[in-house]
Amino acid sequence: MKRKRMLFVTIGVTILLLSGMILYSFLLGDDPHRYYTGLGESISLSFDDSKLTFSYYENGKESIYMANPDGTNVQKITNPTNLQHRSPKFSPSGDKIVYLSEDQEGIQSLRTITLNKSKDRELTDEELHVKDAIFSRDGGDNIYFVAVEAEEFKKGENSKEGFDLFSIETAGGQITKLTDADHFSMNHLFLSPDGKTIYYNEVDGGEKERIYAYSIEDKTRTTEPSFFLRNSLIPTLFMKRNCP
Fold it and tell me: What percentage of the chain reaches a pLDDT higher than 90?
């Protein structure tokens, strides 16, 4: 009798756990932030160190905020509807912010906002999936960004195309493709202190990362990248050392 009772208890507990897992998966779906409230993944400091910009979730809705470095004077900069706003970065003058806007299909477009006018502008459409973006040093007249064709991004591992480096004028205009490398992954865009070289890293799906350099003046990319073990501290230290 005891064994039967233990068997029934075990079966009951198993069914409850399985039901809980199914219910949790159903509620969560494919979005781990669906009911999340808290900071987004990145925080950016203005060039004069006077302001912070970051994304913040409220019950799964991600928007752009700005605040003083001590946490005071918090302002909500964007208020998206059916979109997620993330990865904000200041222009050199601090009067503009570039950020990514994700639609319901997971495609991220590039947008800017002029802070003193609360003027928002979309720079790319649904044809490109943008992964990262930064302002140029020449007054922020240009924006450099990483992107891939949206249709190729939707294909996932079956895609035959990859990420490349692009540029566009801040005021909007013709998009220029700077590289044709079809990288598996591109991350951590940053500029050299003189604003003449763009650095980025690539993870090829293996155990190594590569750091590339693109010369804005010569319009050339390094052909023999530096290699680092994945999860190494070296890329992080390298970027900190070269960032202003």
Answer: 55
Maximum Cα–Cα distance for the chain, whole Å? 83
Q: What span, in angstroms and rounded, lies between the C-alpha atoms of 23 and 17?
A: 10
Give the lowest-confidence range in 54-63, 135-144, 208-217, 231-240.
231-240
For 235, phi then psi, to 5°, come to -60, -40
For 232, how many CA atoms within 13 A lie in the half-sphere containing its CB? 17
Distance CA 208, CA 107 (A): 27
The three-state secondary structure class of 157 is: helix
* Helix or strand holding residue 114 (H, E): strand 108-114
Strand partners, 121: 112
Distances (CA, A) of 10 to 6, 16, 74: 6, 10, 51
Q: Do the Cβ atoms of 128 and 149 come closer than 8 Å?
A: yes
Helices (H), the chain: 2-28, 150-155, 234-242
* Tens digit of each residue's pLDDT (9 = 90 or more) over 99-142: 999 999 999 999 999 998 777 899 999 999 999 999 999 878 89
Which one, of 80, 35, 78, lies nearest residue 59 by Cα?
35
